[in-house]
Amino acid sequence: MKRQGPLRLATPAKFTPLLRVLRRRGDGFHEVVIVLAPISLCDTLTFRFGGAPIFDLTCEGGAELGPPEDNLVLRAARTFAAAVERPLGARIRLEKRIPAGAGLGGGSGNAAATLLALNAAHGYPLGPAALARLAATLGSDVPFFLNPVPTVARGRGELLEPLPVFPRLPLLVVRPPFAVSTAAAYGWVRPDPTERPLPLLSTPAEVVAALENAFEAAVFPRHPVLAEIREALRAAGAAGAVLSGTGSAMVGIFADAEARERAVHALAGQEAWALFPCETLPSFTYALPPRSP
User: Would the pLDDT of 1 be above 60?
Assistant: First the structure.
């Protein structure tokens, strides 16, 4: 049964303390090992149903997003409608807070939430496995956002293994005034096929010691300000700092919320840098309506 009232969902960003690129695959994707955790920096999606079987998207904030027609939200909605073979429609409003082109997975989270929202609104016609298959067609990060918990992703990012323990970390995301294209970054990166065990990640000190991102060696020379941001975060008290995904955001890890707030004040004078205080989450639950009995 179609939902009548609006459905409003927060959709989280991700933190990637470890990202290894192992090799380029025959299908054009790269084999990776990525540690991901949901964070409290969120966008909001509102779905209103009824009317013509057309998906219409409006976006607020994030002027760098481009035209709504190119947004992953619409791709996800149309992919879901094709999968269930129904003439579906909705008016969708996206309120952006997660910066685009920053390696934080905002678009992927929006796409996953769209699949979940439409599935819930129309009586849960698809199970978790079918939703995961749809998510993988939309992007390598999208399956993670269907059930965002601290996870190790392998393959091209779709093979997910939840981590039994991951600490809650105060973070400061710093986004410079430019985006980094994921496709371009993968063209620059040098894969390292060396098989190495995953480090321990159960305490803040272990996460700081494990910080690693294969894209830093490729992206930093092209955008030297990123190294400056890393040093500024460390000088402001961060225990460690790492590039977020393929960039352009840098993420600093702090001992506690008070240390992070001092860093916010210290870096506030850099008007070109956008600052986003947040923290990792042990899990993220979407506010979906319950299944009918």
Answer: no
